[in-house]
Design brief:
By secondary structure, the chain is mostly beta strands. Strands 55, 56, 57, 58, 59, 61, 64 and 66 form an 8-stranded antiparallel β-sheet that branches. A hairpin with a 4-residue loop joins β83 (944-953) and β84 (958-968). The chain starts with 19 loop residues before the first strand and ends in a 23-residue tail after the last strand. 26% of the residues are buried.
């Protein structure tokens, strides 16, 4: 049996009758956890008699590692430390008869921990040694390792026969090459691999041939292209002028090798005909790795002739008859050693007195007689064209310009001017004269230097002058006084030459009127008197002669002046007037007087507005028109009205009879006959507390305006107003509040002389103050200015202090009150259609406040307020239901409903006590428990949403409502059935299905292994209850013919 023992291993002595593990049952996996199959161990058991035994267990010493029985015929061996992986380990094997034997140490394969990494350069040779290949190989028992069968994915490998190999990569290849080889410990052979990293090596570029070039100076731009080659793929070459060298003028080299040369640059302009220069440009080409090559670009520049360039024109200026002047005209030529000659332009005659030399110098004599005609200010410009020529005949031109100016003669002033005038008289004028010998001389007259110009005197540049003796500087001169003014004058020509003269004026004194330097101004408030003194009115008055001044004839506009007789006056502005009132008065010195104006600034005071705020008139209680006037003349009657006139008659004619015709038809005169009561009246059908509005039109009879047509308006026996009308129809309106039932309304003339006021269109209406809840209240609002002179304006009109939720509208504009104290600006609204809707469900007294603000032109403001009230009558409001009530119960379980539960979403703004009526259900039954509760029982086995229907009663009306009850399903336990299948060890997989039923519709069943259970080897259970069992699993290989095993798998 020694042939079963691997070479190099010594077998232990074999005792007769004792089972022995064969030494070739070594562990072949170097992993951290190694699997040992009992089948493999059992195959190695033998005795000295050649009898095989069945292995039933396996273990290793504690210091080596641990063995775990997987219960599937295999054991997991875990070394104590990673270094214990591989090598020989002692193993204890249990056999069927319980005997234990110790196995000889078992050899494990070597371990390779990773790939070997090697490095080299492109196109080089790498020597690979066995030591390098075995750097990552390890054998725990220390067996000698070797490497063999080395292969590479690219390049060439040469076995040197000494444990080394030579590796040569393909030409110019760089990158990574993988290598593979085997590692052996003399028993086992395991594969290993590595990587050779080949680094790229750069190749230098090579510049191609560069041809030489020649160009004429000034010929323009030439270009060329340098080329290079590089064996490296995708290599980028960069061309540049070699370091330490500067590019010649005009030469440009681009990085891509393109170059250009501009022969027109100034650096080569000096080359003359026959001259030349050779330019040599060293060039370097560099690849991206810095490798270089060099060459030269050679360009020959040949010279040409350049024309000379004349300098700028020469300018000179000289006076007529002055001394001779000299000058030089210049030129340049870029050609070296050029010879230049200057001449007067062909066809041109040199001016008189001018000489030009060949070297460009010149002389000019302005004393030549040809220029004697020039006067001061005159001039003539001489232009001499000049040609410059080089030795090759090339030319350029310029010119010399000389300006000759004439000389000046001084002017001569005329005789002095004398004048005489009275102080305060009209202005006088005069003219001072002068002459100048020069033609077209321009003369200017000024007051002599250092002299102050007398008051009222003006001298113009042309010698004319004006003097105003009314200047205040001479008002001090009294009658018989005089003063003489002497004004020195200088006359100057345009060249500054001068002469002098003077103007003498005598001013004789006269009497002067008083003078007021500015207006007096006063200030007073509107409708308040102002005391004005004579001293105040003379505050800015003066008399240059020293006379005593006084005030006469004080008058005013926009007010009245009262003379108090003590040197004071009282000014009273017109009623409500504000602004600037004008005063006028005379200031006198006893001889002459001056009319003076003054102002009184009357500061405006805001008077506010008269606010009318009341309910809108409702149904008419009485009216008066043509339809209810019966008869005419002095025997007419007014239906619905009574009179205390004799016979109960009134007087009625067409309006034209009374001289107030405007197409009205019949009207009524209160004063029918002399001595009559002259009245009409009626008892108004309202109760105490009601409001009544009276409107009518009234006019005085023609020729009877004023007191003769006065009418008393009377309510409940009291005079409310007395109207004193003028001729012309006016409308009147009154609002009364009754203090008794059936109050008396009366219109009565104040006298009874049979002629007086006439009436038309009388209307009596009750003002609406009672409004039903949640309805709009119509409001009559008006704000009239008390001060109607135009200085005051209505700036704000608002409805204030309504409750949140109220609405103010005019049919177009609408504002909802969103916060307490909010004011609604109704400026610009249609106040005839104004309505106010109280907050929802409000009833009781509604108080409406209005504010009106007026502003005077000076900014003074005044706010007036008014208020009125309305009775909002209550109306029953229906109960509101915000949504369905919601409840929950389980399937087949009753639920008790109470009124509170059913009313959970109901509210009643009136606070009414609510109750439940007509409760019914869908998908269930409602049972009235007789104690204000109901029991809802869902239909058998029903689950889902059941509905309730019922009415809510607030004592007046019913409101429908409904509820929802979520009936939760109750789960039933599923019932599973056993599944049984048979299989042959080593046969094909078999399948099966675990069945289960659940009485709940739509139940979803999931099958899993019983808790804490591990599936047997080869068994798989799916979530739908299907399963697969593979009897070929090695866990069942130990079953011999006739053996069987029953696997029981608990399933949940």
């Amino acid at each position: 049996m020694d042939e079963d023992i691997p070479e190099g291993y010594a077998a232990q002595p074999i005792e007769a009758g004792v089972p022995q593990l064969a030494p070739r049952a070594y562990l072949s996996s170097p992993d951290a956890e190694t699997t040992i199959r009992l089948d493999d161990v059992e195959a190695q058991l033998f005795s000295s008699e050649g009898i095989r035994y069945k292995a039933t267990g396996l273990d290793v010493p504690e210091e080596v590692g641990t063995v775990t029985d997987r219960q599937d015929g295999t054991f997991a061996f875990t070394p104590r430390t990673p270094d214990d992986r591989g090598g020989r380990i002692p193993v204890e094997v249990s056999v069927q008869d319980g005997e234990v034997v110790t196995q000889k140490q078992i050899n494990l394969a070597p371990v390779v921990s990773g790939a070997v990494e090697l490095e080299m350069n492109e196109d080089g040779t790498l020597i690979i040694s066995s030591e390098q290949l075995l750097e990552s190989a390890h054998d725990a028992q220390g067996d000698a390792l070797s490497a063999f069968n080395l292969e590479a994915e690219g390049g060439t490998l040469i076995d040197n026969g000494d444990g080394t190999w030579a590796f040569i990569p393909d030409e110019h290849f760089y990158g990574e090459i993988k290598i593979r080889y085997m590692v052996s410990d003399g028993v086992h052979q395991i594969p290993a691999q590595g990587v050779v990293h080949i680094a790229e090596v750069n190749d230098a570029p090579v510049i191609g041939d560069v041809p030489e070039a020649a160009v004429l100076e000034g010929d323009g731009l030439m270009a060329g292209q340098l080329e290079s080659e590089d064996v490296d793929d995708h290599e980028i070459a960069v061309f540049s002028v070699s370091e330490g060298h500067a590019a010649p003028a005009g030469f440009v080299l681009d990085a891509d090798g393109h170059y250009s040369f501009d022969a027109t640059v100034d650096a080569y302009a000096h080359l003359n005909v026959g001259d030349s220069v050779v330019l040599t440009v060293p060039v370097t080409v560099t690849d991206r790795a810095g490798a270089t090559d060099f060459t030269q670009v050679r360009i020959t520049v040949n010279g040409t002739n350049d024309a000379p360039v004349a300098g700028a024109e020469v300018l000179a200026s000289v006076d007529e008859a002055a001394g001779a002047i000299t000058g030089q005209i210049t030129a340049t030529d870029v050609d070296d050693d050029a010879v230049l000659t200057f001449t007067v332009g062909e066809g041109t005659v040199a001016p008189a007195g001018f000489t030009l030399n060949p070297d460009g110098s010149f002389v000019f004599n302005p004393a030549d007689t040809a220029y004697d005609y020039l006067n001061a200010g005159d001039s003539v410009t001489l232009t001499v064209p000049v040609t410059v020529t080089d030795e090759h005949g090339a030319t350029d031109i310029s010119r010399i310009r000389i300006t000759v100016g004439g000389t000046n003669d001084a002017p001569v002033a005329g005789a002095e001017v004398l004048a005489s005038v009275d102080e305060g008289a009209a202005a006088i004028s005069g003219q001072l004269l002068a002459t100048d010998a020069d033609d077209d001389a321009v003369l200017t007259f000024t007051v002599g230097e250092g002299t102050a110009v007398p008051a009222g005197f003006t001298l113009n540049p042309d010698g004319s002058f004006v003097f105003n003796p009314a200047d205040i500087a001479y008002e001090h001169l009294g009658a018989g006084d005089s003063v003489t003014l002497t004004v020195p004058v200088t006359v100057t020509d345009e060249h500054g030459a001068t002469d002098a003269s003077e103007i003498r004026i005598t001013v004789d004194g006269t009497n002067d009127v008083p003078v007021v330097s500015e207006s007096v101004s006063f200030a007073v408030r509107e409708d308040v008197g102002l005391l004005i003194t004579e001293e105040e009115l003379l505050a800015y008055a003066a008399d240059i002669d020293g006379d005593v001044l006084s005030v006469r004839n004080l008058t005013s506009e926009n007010g009245a002046i009262a003379d108090n007789g003590d040197g004071t006056w009282t000014f009273t502005p017109d009623e409500h007037f504000s602004g600037e009132a004008v005063l006028a008065y005379d200031v006198t010195d006893g001889i002459d007087s001056t009319r003076v104006g003054a102002t009184v600034v009357v500061e405006g005071v805001a008077d506010g507005a008269a606010i009318t705020l009341e309910g809108v008139a409702g149904e008419s209680l009485a009216s008066f028109g043509d339809d209810n006037i019966v008869g005419s003349g002095g025997s007419a009657q007014l239906n619905g009205w009574e009179t205390d006139n004799v016979g109960g008659f009134i007087e009625s004619y067409d309006d034209g009879v009374y001289g107030v015709e405007d197409g009205r038809g019949k009207v009524v005169e209160l004063e029918r006959n002399r001595g009559d009561a002259s009245n009409i009246y009626r008892n108004v059908d309202v109760e105490a507390g009601d409001t009544v509005r009276l409107t009518f039109d009234l006019s005085a009879r023609a020729g009877r305006g004023g007191e003769d047509s006065a009418v008393d308006v009377m309510w409940e026996g009291q005079v409310i107003d007395t109207i004193v009308p003028e001729v012309g129809w006016e409308s009147y309106s009154y609002t009364f509040t009754a203090t008794t039932d059936q109050p008396r309304l009366e219109l009565k003339a104040t006298d009874n002389n049979s002629t007086g006021a006439v009436l038309d269109v009388i209307q009596v209406s009750e003002v609406v103050t009672d409004v039903l809840e949640d309805n709009a209240v119509a409001v009559r609002l008006d704000a009239a200015l008390i001060d109607a002179d135009g200085s005051e304006t209505l700036t704000a009109l608002s409805v204030d202090d309504l409750a949140v939720g109220s609405i103010v509208s005019d049919g177009v504009n609408e504002v909802a009150i969103s916060e307490a104290g909010q004011a609604v600006d109704v400026m610009g609204w249609d106040l005839n259609n104004l309505t106010i809707t109280p907050e929802p469900n409000f009833n009781g007294e509604l108080v409406v406040h209005v504010s009106a603000t007026t502003e005077e032109a000076n900014g003074d403001t005044r706010t007036t307020t008014a208020s009125t009230s309305f009775d909002i009558l209550p109306v029953n409001d229906a109960t509101e239901v915000s949504g369905p009530t919601r409840f929950a119960t389980d399937e087949d379980t009753g639920f008790v409903l109470t009124e509170d539960l059913l009313l959970a979403t109901a509210t009643d703004v009136d606070g009414d006590v609510l109750g439940i009526r007509n409760l019914s259900a869908e998908n269930g039954t409602v049972i009235d428990n007789g104690d204000g509760t109901w029991t809802f029982v869902p239909a058998q086995d029903f689950n889902g949403e059941a509905r309730l229907f019922y009415d809510i009663f607030d004592g007046t009306g019913l409101v429908p409502a409904h509820g929802l009850i979520d009936v939760a399903a109750v789960n039933d336990v599923p019932v599973a059935e056993d599944a049984v299948v048979d299989a042959d060890e080593g046969g094909v997989p078999v399948t099966g299905q675990v069945a289960a039923v659940d009485v709940d519709d739509g139940a979803v069943l999931t099958f899993t292994l019983g808790e804490g259970t591990t599936a047997p080897a080869g068994f798989t259970l799916n979530p739908d209850g299907s399963f697969v069992f593979n009897p070929a699993d090695i866990a069942y290989d130990h079953l011999g013919a006739g053996d069987s095993m029953t696997l029981t798998v608990p399933v949940t």
